[in-house]
Amino acid sequence: MTMPPKSPASTTFARSDDDALIERAEAAIEVTTRIHTEIGRRIFGQDDVISQTLVTLLSGGHALVVGVPGLAKTLLVETLGVVLGLSEKRVQFTPDLLPADILGSEVLEEDTSGKRHFRFLPGPVFSQLLMADEINRASPRTQSALLQAMQEGEVSIAGVRHPLPQPFHVLATQNPIEQEGTYPLPEAQLDRFFMQINVDYPDRDSERDILLRTTGTEQSSVSRVTDGAGLADLQQLVRLMPVGETVVEAILDIVRTARPSENMPDIVWGPGPRAAQALMLGCRASALLDGRFAPSIDDVKALAAPVLRHRMALGFAARADGKTNDDVIAALVAQV
Questions:
Q1: pLDDT tens-digit profile of 107-144?
Q2: What ranges make up the beta strands (E) of the chain?
Q3: How far is the C-alpha of 329 from the C-alpha of 277, rounded, in Å?
Q4: Residues 296 and 287 sit within 8 Å (Cβ to Cβ)
Q5: Distance from CA of residue 268 to its chain's centroid?
Q6: How far apart are CA 155 and CA 170, in angstroms?
Q7: Which residues contact 325 (CB under 8 A, 6 or more apart)?
Q8: CA nearest neighbour of 146 among 199, 177, 191
Q9: Run of H or E residues at 247
Q10: Cα–Cα distance between 159 and 26 in angstroms, integer?
Q11: In the structure, what pLDDT confidence band is assigned to residue 178 with cuts at 50, 70 and 90?
C-alpha cells in the first residue's frame, strides 16, 4: 500500500519545528560561549577541564575531578556556582564523616503543648551543586550515601523520600597521589559519575598568567550568566539534538570493544550501557559548546577517555607491563 504524500500544512509544520529548534540552539550556543568565557576569567590554563565539566553539566551528569592539590579544583566548583546561578555547598570528606552529615537527619522536637514529633533537618546534599571534596577519604558506607542522590535525584530518610533541588549535580574531587587513609570508590559509584576529569599541571604561559593575576591586590571576579532553570533548559536542548548513524555506530564500537573478550584479554571488567548513554549525551553537549548543531565522530574520540577511564579495569599482567586505561582507550579510538 502506497502512503499518501504529506500535505503542505504538515510539511510547513515540520519545517517550523526545525526552524524553532535551530533558533533555540543558536541562542544556547551564545549562552554556553558566555559561560565558558566567564569561567575562563578565573580558571587559567585549564580549557579542557572547563569544557569537560560543562559537557558533564549540560548532559545532566556528575563529575569526578582528579588532580593533585593546588590546581583550582575547588575554585572551579565555586566559580561554576556563581556563573550558573546554582546553590552550591561543599562537604570535606573525612574518615569520621557519617551519611547523616551529608543527607541530613531527623530530630525529636516538643511543641508548646508537650507533643513530640520528628522534624527533618536537610543536609548539604540539598543543593544544586554539591562539592564532595576528597571523596575517597570517607568510608564506603558514607560514600554510598550519595548513590541514590546521584541516580534518582532524591534521598530516603527513615523511609520517607525527599526530592533534591533540580538541577542537581555532584562534583567530587580526588587526590591521585596521597593514598594513605583513603578508600577506593566502589564500582557502582564510579559508574554514576558521568566523567572522570583529570586535571594536569598548567603550561608555562598559563602558569605565568596565574602568577600575575592572582598575587596582586585585585582578584578576578565573575558574573552570573544563567540560573538553574536556564541550565535545565540547556540540558533539555542537548537531548533534542540529532545524532547521525555513523556517530551512533562509533559509540557502540568503542564501548562494546572495551569489555572483556578474547580480543581484549587485558580488560578485566568494562563499561556498561550507562557509559554508552553518557558518550551519546556528551557528544551532543560537546557539539553545542563548539557551536555546532550535531555531533561528529571527533566528539566521540575526544570524550572516550574521560567517559570510559573510570568504568574499566585492567588485569595484573597488563598493569605490570605499564599499560593504563587511557592507553587501552587510545588504541580503541585509533581503530574508529
A1: 877 777 778 777 788 889 999 999 999 998 888 888 88
A2: 63-66, 88-92, 104-110, 116-122, 129-133, 154-157, 160-163, 169-174, 195-198, 267-269, 313-314
A3: 17
A4: yes
A5: 25
A6: 14
A7: 308, 309, 310, 312, 313, 314
A8: 191
A9: helix 245-257
A10: 45
A11: low
Torsion, Cα 299 302 304 305, to 10 degrees, reads -160
Cα separation, 272 vs 127, in Å, equals 29
Q: Which amino acid is at 8?
A: P
Task: Identify the residue whose cell numbers are 536556564.
Answer: 230
Give residue 39's pLDDT band: very low, low, confident or very high (50, 70, 90).
very high
Strand partners, 89: 130
- Amino acid sitting at position 238: V
Please state, in angstroms and rounded to a whole number, the distance separating the CA atoms of residues 272 and 255: 8
Listed residue (310, 314, 55, 48) closest to 192, CA to CA: 310
0.90 exceeded by pTM = no
What is the distance between the alpha carbons of residues 226 and 115, in angstroms, rounded to a whole number?
A: 45
Residue 157 is predicted with a pLDDT of: 83
Which tens digits make up the pLDDT trace of 232-255?
999 999 999 999 999 999 999 999
Q: Residue 203 in 3-state DSSP?
A: coil
How many whole angstroms separate alpha carbon 194 and alpha carbon 312? 14
Integer distance in angstroms from the first to the last C-alpha of the chain? Answer: 40
**Cβ contact 165:87 at 8 Å:** yes
pLDDT greater than 50 at residue 275: yes
What is residue 124's three-state secondary structure? coil
Task: Find where cell 551532543 sits.
Answer: 284
